[in-house]
Design goal:
With 566 residues, this protein is of the alpha/beta class. It has eight helices and 30 strands. The strands form seven sheets. An eight-stranded parallel beta barrel has the order 21-22-23-24-25-26-27-28, surrounded by five helices. Helix 1 (290-303) packs parallel to helix 2 (317-326) and helix 4 runs parallel beside helix 5. The chain is globular. It starts with 13 loop residues before the first strand and ends with a helix. Bound molecules: alpha-D-galactopyranuronic acid. The site of alpha-D-galactopyranuronic acid has 10 residues, from loops.
Length: 566
């Protein structure tokens, strides 16, 4: 299940999820030996979607692996669409031995169109390489467990001769309460003259015939549009029907803007009570089952949270659907994790191209979700450098060429020396006083100096979030005194930090690091990662099995208090 609702009523979708033939290729001989045509007999089985690191014996495996499955077609169709919703790392997709697609980056979909496919069995083979390097995204040093595999569902769809290739919805809200919607339907095949209909929540709002040329633009109005809002979600389903094909998506009408009061949703400031969430679980890796996402949503609602940062990569569309349906806000970002990113890598044109492509793919995938209120371009790169400014300019341009309706944010770890500040609409500060250095009270002085600096730079009024702060507390580690790594110590740091932030009127919201404990990269010998007791980052409010720590109750109490009108 990739979405919480059906994306087609008449187009048939076959999920290719299930056991695929699988084998690792540590010496990388598969291409030379033509495994895309002659898949080795020695292959075992691996369930799709999954991360291979969760299999016995493969925990540490990073590198190349191959998958194969077979689909059977008949004469009823000759064109097909194949979608891999996520393959970690670099992927090559072969159909009947021929290269059909190549893709970099593990969190956005790979779409393949196949034409004139004869009836019969067809082999789909995937070669994937999970290795991290100098210009991969993420970079080779990263503070999460780097899994490998086909981690989200695979869809296989027979297409009629005239079909829909995509739908883009944009809208403007008028003073009269109406939404003026523009629906662009991309088509395949000879669509001219084919019947075309657009429905809103099941009611036709436009009926006619396609003009042809590959893109149909339809405009319609929604009088008295119900607005989507924080804690008060209102969603509309839009369905395009072209001849014997259809395409369904969902939108919510709302505005997002920034002002000196912070983030404005429908013109009103919202104080963000947020958490950072990795989409990770020790038994599932990044291939998180939808049922677990429902549970996470319930936990976040119980916490009193109204915002989630998708740290640090595009998360599952299913998760975004749940946020849409429950009125929570979302910060979407790509995996530029910069704390140990050298300037040479920050300057690498290959990395910049990959980042721009990933932003484009994320925005195209997620742009209809009303929960998404900001696009994050990077995390903790060296924003004291001109090189970081160049990369930021490039990525801001990449975002704006796709979406001008949402503000752009990044997270800085150098608030007092940052020179990227003028470029983005919003900024998040990542600081760990009380953990990596200093005392939690040091936040006060840092913030005073930071806001003074913002004024000097002529940037007073730019909305600022505390995007990361916290401390590690090992679940069950309790005692009489708040020692580091104890639940009490973690709770204490978070209580003091959150009170300081809430009292500072120029801060527009907080994102606790982090929602749940995550596995970290045990292959990495960098000193920062050697404090990771149990090979986990233990700063979660809940442990890796989603059991609450003392800090969960503390943040719950504070978030409830902060949400009450003052
Ligand atoms: C950084 C980073 C997080 C995590 C955190 C920590 O701020 O953005 O991904 O690594 O530090 O726990 O140290």
């Amino acid at each position: 299940m990739m979405r919480t609702f059906r994306t087609h009523y008449i187009r048939k979708t076959q999920l290719l999820d299930g056991p695929w033939d699988f084998l690792v290729d540590p010496e990388d001989v598969g291409r030379r030996e033509g495994w895309e045509r002659r898949f080795p007999e020695t292959a075992g089985k691996l369930y799709v979607p999954a991360c291979w690191n969760n299999e016995l014996g493969l925990f540490e495996y990073e590198g190349v692996a191959w998958y194969r499955t077979t689909v059977h077609t008949d004469e009823s169709a000759s064109d097909y669409r194949l979608v891999f919703h996520a393959i970690l790392g670099a992927a090559s997709v072969y159909v009947d031995g021929e290269l059909a697609a190549e893709h970099d980056g593990g969190f956005t979909p790979i779409e393949v169109y196949l034409e004139n496919v004869p009836a019969g069995p067809h082999d789909i083979v995937v070669r994937t390489d999970s290795s991290l390097g100098e210009d991969t995204l993420p970079y080779k040093i990263v503070d999460w467990y780097h899994y490998g595999g086909i981690t989200r569902s695979v869809e296989w769809q027979p297409l009629p001769s005239v079909s829909i290739a995509g739908m883009k919805l944009t809208y403007a809200l008028g003073d009269d309460g109406a939404a003026a919607v523009r629906c662009e339907v991309a088509t395949r095949g000879e669509a001219a003259g084919a019947p075309l209909r657009v429905e809103l929540d099941g009611e036709p709002v436009w009926t006619g015939v396609a003009a042809g040329g590959g893109l149909e633009t339809i405009e319609f109005a929604v009088p008295n549009a119900r607005l989507w809002n924080v804690g008060a979600p209102e969603l509309y389903t839009v369905r395009a029907v072209l001849a014997a094909d259809d395409w369904i998506d969902r939108i919510g009408f709302r505005t997002v803007a920034t002002g000196p009061e912070g983030l404005l949703v429908n013109g009103a400031p919202v104080y963000l009570l947020g958490v950072n969430r990795h989409e990770e679980h020790p038994d599932w890796g990044f291939a998180m089952p939808p049922k677990l996402m429902h549970k996470e949503l319930d936990i976040l609602k119980t916490l009193g949270c109204n915002a989630v940062r998708g740290s640090h990569y595009p998360q599952s569309p299913y998760w975004l659907d749940l946020l849409d349906e429950n009125g929570l806000l979302y910060w979407g970002e790509i995996p530029i994790w910069g704390a140990h990113l050298p300037l040479e890598a920050t300057a690498s044109p290959v990395m910049a191209d990959r980042a721009a492509a990933m932003l484009r793919e994320m925005i195209r995938r997620d742009r209809h979700h009303p929960c998404v209120v900001m696009w994050g371009i990077h995390n903790e790169i060296d924003t004291r450098s001109e090189i970081a400014c160049k990369l930021s300019e490039r990525l801001i341009e990449a975002v704006r060429s796709e979406d001008r309706t949402r503000p752009i944010i990044y997270a800085t770890m150098h608030p007092e020396e940052d020179i990227v500040l003028p470029l983005a609409d919003l900024v998040g500060i990542n600081k760990y006083y009380g953990w990596y250095g200093g005392n939690v009270e040091d936040f006060e002085g840092m913030l005073e100096r930071f806001f003074r600096r913002l004024e000097t730079l002529g940037l007073a009024g730019k909305p600022v979030f505390m995007s990361e702060f916290g401390a590690a507390g090992v679940f069950g580690e309790t005692g009489w005194e708040p020692r580091i790594f104890s639940e009490e110590y973690q709770a204490d740091v978070l209580e003091k930090a959150l009170r300081i932030f809430r009292a500072e009127k120029r801060i527009s919201g907080t994102f606790v690091w982090q929602f749940a404990d995550i596995r970290v990269n045990t292959r990495n010998h960098h000193i920062q990662f050697r404090d990771r007791a149990r090979s986990f980052n233990n700063k979660g409010l809940v442990n890796e099995y989603r059991k609450p720590k003392t800090a969960f109750r503390t943040v719950q109490r504070l978030y409830r208090e902060f949400a009450r009108p003052t």
